[in-house]
Design brief:
heterodimer, A: alpha/beta, seven-stranded parallel beta sheet, 13 helices, about 35% helix, B: about 325 residues, alpha/beta, Rossmann fold, five-stranded parallel beta sheet
Chain lengths: ~325, ~325
């Protein structure tokens, strides 16, 4: 069972990842930074390819005729031309919700950190500004507030689950509603996007980026939000129109934002978002934890094994 | 109904506080920073005094013969000599759990943040170090970990309630166990302190500071903790032996700490703890929120009204 692995991982993380491979697998590893020729050379005989936070051109796949599955490690697939890959007869699968926990927990850190003034408090303390956070600048509680989840897949559901203990009002938007049973379990009620934006004190984005979600939060949507509301983005920067977001943040349209993702990454130091003190930026890291590396690796190796043995593949992603 | 208020609030916050007074109350206000004569002048005829400032001397009460209740708007009472107040025939009450929500949510912001590496990644992003947080430093998940809560009053219970959504193992210690029913509701099981310290991945402290809890986490207790564990303190700095904590943080005894409180506040810039990159410090801000200001005010005015009318006082604190 020959498996190609195109990876962006550090050496140490790669070692952790490879612990999940099956003994019968013969693995060929190539760095994401390698040329297409090198990637073809490594994966030529592979029956499946695992893409670890890496990119792979369709040309490389054309040079690997035995591939039965292209397996991604992330949840997102906006950089993968699934239609062209499928045209080669190769299915594409994502990580089966393997990073739902780390992304959801990261999101909760951003929500609690923003609302309770933790980030500002840490900054004030470092600046020797001991009391200002407490006395001069207000902070809020999540209890009793309304949190709006846009996108209710594995990640959005995990966020909703964590919110249950906070005694807040959880609303969500998704193209297709989840079951009434799941809604009840998650204490979450469905609202159309426009209504969700109007009532939420925190809006958190968990839909995938695709043609229908690019720029889905634009001028009109931001204008619906409360001036006191926060926007949290841990999915893809391009889901939010960046210029409009900047405008809303600087004109009092919304109160603040926490962004693990921006349209441009790494975000250059002259990006105006860096200057805003109502914005928290983290370097697109919500999805990876020690535990999720192992979990995603186990899922990926199990899935490519299924593919090579002709068993049903899980978490198949098809073009819109 | 004459009520004295000794306050450190800003004008705006004081205005919000006063909105919760009853119409029949005749209120005189003194600033906590005012000389004792002014405080006595404000409270001389008062039937109850609300103390909206921590750590002020209560010696002025000897000149206020009609006072039936000294009502604090805070949870902690380590600065209050309850025995001598009681000896004057004056009862003392704290804020009735009025800041349980903000402290518990702040605590979750700290626990979530240190686990998922959010504070470090905010720093990394700001330093233009876009990828290092993701690739070089491990981060973890809270799901599946063991959280140990020391002190299971209103705040500890709120933390436990929030944790029910996180699928972690919650253990707690308290001088008197909570009811089996409550334990079940909070998914929390009782452990003696020593055992809690050995199994917890996070130790979060929510006990009041008093003679028996001062320095309760010392060298011996820190040595019981896992080298991978974090300690979170949002109660009072003096509950932890500060030198032993510094030692554990710099010798690999524990993985890190998040401290909203330190023994010395404001913590001076030359304090060595600022140099540690495994420590997050916030300036004792966990208990204040817009909502808790209103909640503590409402509780305080209700309670002093009860005291003046001879009804049972709530949240009475008696000396150990």
């Amino acid at each position: 069972m020959k498996i190609g692995i195109v990876t962006w991982n550090s050496t140490e993380r790669h070692k952790l990842f490879m612990e999940q491979a099956y003994p019968e697998m013969e693995t060929f590893v190539v760095a994401d930074s390698a040329s297409d020729e090198e990637k073809i050379e490594a994966c030529r005989d592979a029956e499946a390819i695992i893409m670890v936070a890496a990119s792979l051109s369709v040309d490389v796949l054309k040079g690997c005729p035995n591939v039965k599955l292209l397996q991604g490690i992330g949840a997102g697939f906006d950089k993968v031309d699934i239609k062209a890959i499928n045209a080669l007869g190769i299915p594409y699968a994502n990580n089966g919700g393997g990073n739902a926990i780390p992304v959801a927990e990261f999101t909760m850190s951003l929500i609690t950190g923003l609302a309770r003034g933790v980030f500002r408090g840490a900054q004030n303390a470092r600046d020797g500004n001991w009391n200002s956070g407490l006395r001069e600048t207000p902070s809020w509680e999540i209890a009793g507030k309304c949190v709006g989840i846009v996108g209710m897949g594995a990640i959005g559901q995990r966020v909703a689950k964590m919110l249950v203990g906070y005694d807040c009002d959880t609303v969500y938007y998704k193209r297709t509603r989840v079951s009434a049973e799941l809604e009840q379990e998650l204490h979450a009620r469905y609202l159309p996007l426009d209504e969700l934006l109007q009532v939420s004190d925190v809006v958190t984005m968990h839909n995938s980026l695709n043609k229908s979600t690019i720029g889905m939060i634009g001028k009109e949507q931001l204008a619906l939000m409360k001036p006191s509301a926060f926007l949290v983005n841990t999915t893809r920067g391009a889901c939010i129109d960046q210029d409009e977001l900047y405008d809303a943040l600087t004109s009092g349209g919304i109160a603040g934002a926490a962004l693990d993702v921006l349209a441009e990454e790494p975000t250059p130091s002259d990006n105006p978002f860096w200057k805003l003190n109502n914005v928290i930026i983290t370097p697109h890291q919500s999805g990876i934890s020690q535990e999720s590396v192992t979990r995603s690796a186990a899922f990926a190796f199990a899935n490519v094994r299924r593919a090579t043995l002709g068993e049903p593949i899980q978490s198949l992603v098809t073009p819109e | 109904m004459k009520i004295g208020i000794v306050t450190m609030n800003t004008l705006e916050r004081h205005r919000m506080f006063m909105e919760h007074a009853y119409p029949e109350m005749e209120i005189s206000v003194a600033a906590a920073s005012a000389p004792e004569e002014e405080i006595i002048a404000a409270c001389a005829d008062a039937e109850a005094v609300i103390m909206n400032a921590p750590g002020i001397s209560t010696a002025f009460l000897k000149d206020c013969p009609n006072v039936k209740l000294l009502q604090s708007t805070f949870a902690g009472y380590d600065h209050v000599d309850i025995k001598s107040i009681n000896d004057m025939g004056i009862a003392f009450a704290n804020n009735g759990g009025g800041n349980a929500i903000p402290v518990a949510e702040f605590t979750m912001g700290l626990i979530n943040g240190v686990t998922r590496g959010v504070f470090r990644s905010v720093q990394n992003a700001r330093a233009g170090n876009w990828n290092s947080g993701l690739r070089e430093h491990p981060t973890w998940e809270l799901t599946g970990k063991c959280v140990g809560i020391i002190g299971m009053g209103a705040i500890g219970q709120r933390v436990a309630q929030i944790l029910t959504g996180y699928e972690c193992d919650t253990v707690y210690t308290k001088r008197a166990r909570v009811s089996a029913e409550r334990e079940k509701e909070l998914h929390a099981r009782y452990l003696p302190l020593d055992e809690l310290l050995q199994v917890a991945d996070y130790v979060t402290i929510h006990t009041a500071l008093n003679q028996s809890s001062r320095g309760m986490i010392g060298k011996e207790q820190l040595a019981l903790m896992k080298p991978t564990a974090f300690v979170i303190n949002t109660t009072r700095g003096a509950v932890i032996d500060q030198e032993a904590l510094y030692e554990a943080l710099t010798t690999g005894g524990i993985a890190g700490a998040a401290l909203d409180v330190l023994a010395e506040e404001p913590t001076p810039q030359e304090h060595p703890i600022w140099q540690l990159d495994n420590v997050i410090i916030t300036p004792h801000v966990s208990g204040g929120s817009q909502e808790s200001g209103a909640r503590s005010a409402a509780f305080s005015f209700d309670n002093v009204r009860r005291a003046v009318l001879g009804e049972p006082i709530q949240s009475l604190i008696t000396p150990e």
